[in-house]
Specification:
This protein has about 280 residues and is mainly alpha-helical. Helix content is about 60%, strand content about 10%. β4 and β5 form a beta hairpin.
């Protein structure tokens, strides 16, 4: 993986694969799990992130995932995060390669308040696999932040009809053009910065954070699409605006020595509105 742009594209691809897995149903859950594992193994950057932990950690995934007695499945999370990450990946690999086990079968043996098959499967995937997804997403986001710090460069940002040449913002110069529209690359970078900060937001319900993360990722997917859908972007932006309206006092955090403030959220919303307005 070479360059900041490649890493950002990888982040989008991984989030898409992860979303497909976490939103699986009984017809595609096992296929999506196989694709998820294959994608990690076939992508050097992702493989490095996972195996850097898994290959250096001694832990049997059967101590975390108790499923072999045929009764209700239990997940006993180890205190050591590295052991947890190794357990999840080894478990996912085992299920993906097994001819007798399946993620659908295991999900039906895991406690869930809902009786709907799709929700039962997604509940199990959320408890069993999602911590690994979060770990990989965080690792990619940290690498992106470090690369941005090392190579501030010059970014082009087109904002409405603002007149001017160059303004200084933290590190690097941001050129402001007078033509209408917002640079998709810059907007994507701002979204990535905010996504990387979500795990640090305190005193906000996890479901609310996950929901706004989905909205931000939806914005990213549309920005990268050759034919972005205006209605889908507006719906996602509405979710981001609601989150900021409800929790605006809690979004200021520090990630890898870089501050994410309410001004970043405001800038994101304003730029996204301009981007959508020009579709």
């Amino acid at each position: 993986m070479n360059g900041l742009k490649d890493l950002k594209f990888l982040s989008l691809d991984f989030r898409r694969k992860s979303s497909q897995l976490l939103n699986s149903d009984e017809h595609n859950a096992d296929v999506n799990l196989c694709r998820f594992v294959d994608f990690i193994e076939s992508t050097p950057t992702l493989r490095g992130i996972v195996h850097d932990v898994a290959d250096r950690t001694e832990y049997d995934f059967r101590e975390c995932f108790l499923f072999e007695d045929g009764s209700w499945i239990e997940i006993q999370i180890p205190v050591d995060e590295k052991e947890h990450i190794k357990a999840i990946y080894d478990y996912a690999t085992y299920i993906a390669n097994s001819e007798t086990e399946s993620i659908v079968y295991h999900s039906r043996r895991y406690p869930c308040r809902s009786s709907k098959t799709e929700e039962v499967i997604q509940n199990y995937l959320n408890d069993s696999i999602k911590p690994l997804i979060d770990f990989i997403n965080d690792s990619i986001s940290k690498e992106i932040i470090l690369m941005q710090e090392e190579n501030p460069g010059v970014m082009t940002q087109n904002i409405g009809t603002v007149n001017g040449n160059v303004v200084q913002q933290q590190s690097g110069n941001i050129a402001i053009n007078t033509n209408t529209g917002v640079s998709g690359e810059d907007l994507n970078g701002l979204i990535e910065k905010i996504i990387s900060s979500l795990s640090e937001i305190k005193d906000v319900d996890t479901e609310e954070v996950d929901s706004v993360k989905d909205d931000l990722e939806s914005l990213q997917e549309q920005i990268q699409s050759p034919t972005p859908k205006k209605n889908r972007m507006q719906k996602a932006l509405n979710g981001v605006q609601k989150f900021f309206s409800d929790f605006g006092m809690k979004v200021a955090v520090t990630v890898a020595a870089k501050v994410v403030t309410s001004q970043d959220w405001t800038a994101l919303i304003q730029q996204a509105q301009l981007f959508i307005g020009n579709l």
